Each structure stands twice: as structure tokens, then as C-alpha cells.
TrEMBL record:
Biological classification of the source: Eukaryota, Metazoa, Spiralia, Lophotrochozoa, Mollusca
A matching Pfam family: CFAP300
Protein name: Cilia- and flagella-associated protein 300
Source domain of life: Eukaryota
Keyword Cytoplasm belongs to the record: yes
Length: 87
């Protein structure tokens, strides 16, 4: 397992897990058609490449493409709010 330190250096985390837990996640969407709305030309191109944008930072997290804008930036025209997420 690798992690990035505060100084920006990548280091290997040399700690073995003492315990691992998992839980079931309910799933109501069983079709890949759910992702078709990403291919409308605003988030991804016809080739499937995710469209890039100028870097913005949200809570020290770099947002450099429209997919991240959709998921993280509430001020973005692409933001997927709670009402749209329920679709």
C-alpha cells in the first residue's frame, strides 16, 4: 500500500492489516445504461475520453476534468445534485 506524505513524497506503508471488514452494498441499478448520461458530450467525448478542464481545488483536491466537476464541485454546471443523483 502506498501513500503520499504531507511533503508530497510517495512512501510505502509497511503496516500489515490487523483486521479487515466488509459489508454488502445494496444495488438497485443493474444496467450499464446508467452511465449513458456521461456520454452526452459534456463529461466524456464520443471516444470515451473524459473531458479536461482548468484545474480547480476543492478541499485541497485537484479537480482537472468534467467528471470530477460533476461529482465534487457544487458550483459547477455539471454538478450532480441530490435530485439528479436519484435519477
Amino acid at each position: 500500500l502506498e501513500m503520499v506524505s504531507e511533503s508530497g513524497q510517495t512512501t510505502i506503508l509497511g503496516v500489515k492489516a490487523k483486521r479487515v471488514t466488509s459489508s454488502s452494498v445494496p444495488c438497485t441499478v443493474l444496467s450499464m445504461a446508467f452511465f449513458d448520461k456521461l456520454m452526452d458530450g459534456q463529461i466524456a467525448a464520443e471516444s470515451g475520453d473524459i473531458k479536461k478542464c482548468f484545474d480547480e481545488f476543492q478541499d485541497e483536491f485537484a479537480i482537472s476534468d468534467n467528471l470530477r466537476q460533476m461529482l465534487l464541485n457544487e458550483d459547477s454546471e455539471f454538478y450532480l445534485n441530490a435530485m439528479r443523483r436519484s435519477e
